[in-house]
Amino acid sequence: MNFDYSEEQQLLADSVRRFLEKSYDFETRKKIIAGEGWSPKVWATFAEMGLTGLPVPAEQGGFGGGAIDLMGVMEAFGEALVVEPYLASAVATRLLARGGSDAQKKALLPAVAEGRLKLALAHEEQGSRYGRKGFKAVLKQNLLSGEKAAVLGAPIADWLVVATADGLCLVEAKRAQMKPYRTVDNVVAADLAFSGAAAEPLGGGLAALEEAIDYATALGCAEAVGAMKFSCDTTLEYLKTRKQFGVPIGTFQALQHRVVDMFIAYEQAKSMACLACSKIDFSDNATDRARAVSMAKIKIADNARHVSQEAVQLHGGMGMSEELKVSHAFRRLTAIARQHGDADFHLARFASL
């Protein structure tokens, strides 16, 4: 398999990385977290760079990009630990683009591509097994009732794609009773309640939801790859500069072996993320796609835990401090490892397939 990006994909990933290195350093990120938890200015820049239009079909003013087109972007986001809920909006955009009526798509998707509207997917509930089945929310006569938990990006979203017992629907975010908070990795999220909120049905049903969650899982794996790369690079740099007994601790063979294991885990994760994203874009077999995504998530969840824990331990006590970026990478990797299904969930899913 060819793991190289096309010229256009590489140029986009490089431009995103340059912007983040220049304008989204760790100090800037801390200021965003201390404020509203996201930056309208950064989101506007994403729109100018074409990122908000990447998952939008060309017919609605976007670029019609797939998972592989977004993979380099998500890796760059992982390295910078971007807190803006870009992926949450992209997944909901995918569902709207594939299941929305012509009127719905015409009304919303051009504004999403321009960065003027943000979407979020509300699918997880208590007992819904990572938002895949057992939904209690219902849509009757275009009125939505029920509750949703841990909806990433909901506090800043304009519209929500909501999973119900009978399928999907589209509802304005202002019609939800919202309890906003920050996740452990500082992403804005909320618990939602609907009491007869006006909503419009979306096509595609729960099969479309399953595919969209696989899409989100694959791109979450790509984001984890970026966070792992940062963890490996910053740990190696620390070992080269931190001295003990008059020499850099990177000269100790035992620590060298641990860093090598971290880089091996990172390379394995990158290969598995490539496989998952390619299956999302090119496999017409739902079972084949699901198997590949679950395989990737199993490996990446385990490797994310290994890399993040090693990075913290090799930095010593300050590795857990709020002031050091490596501790935030630990939190992000911990969250990704459980988002859309942890290793145990995907192992069981893989076995069932």
Overview of this protein structure:
The chain is an alpha+beta fold and 353 residues long. The protein has 3 domains: 107 residues, Acyl-CoA dehydrogenase/oxidase, N-terminal domain (Butyryl-Coa Dehydrogenase, subunit A, domain 1, Orthogonal Bundle), CATH 1.10.540; 86 residues, Butyryl-CoA Dehydrogenase, subunit A, domain 2; 146 residues, Butyryl-CoA Dehydrogenase, subunit A, domain 3. The chain has 11 helices and 10 strands. The strands form 3 sheets. A 4-stranded mixed β-sheet has the order 1-4-5-8. A 4-stranded antiparallel β-sheet has the order 2-3-7-6, with no helix packed on it. The protein has a two-stranded antiparallel sheet with strand order 9-10. Helix 9 runs antiparallel to helix 10.
Write a concise synopsis of the structure shown.
This protein is an alpha+beta fold and 353 residues long.
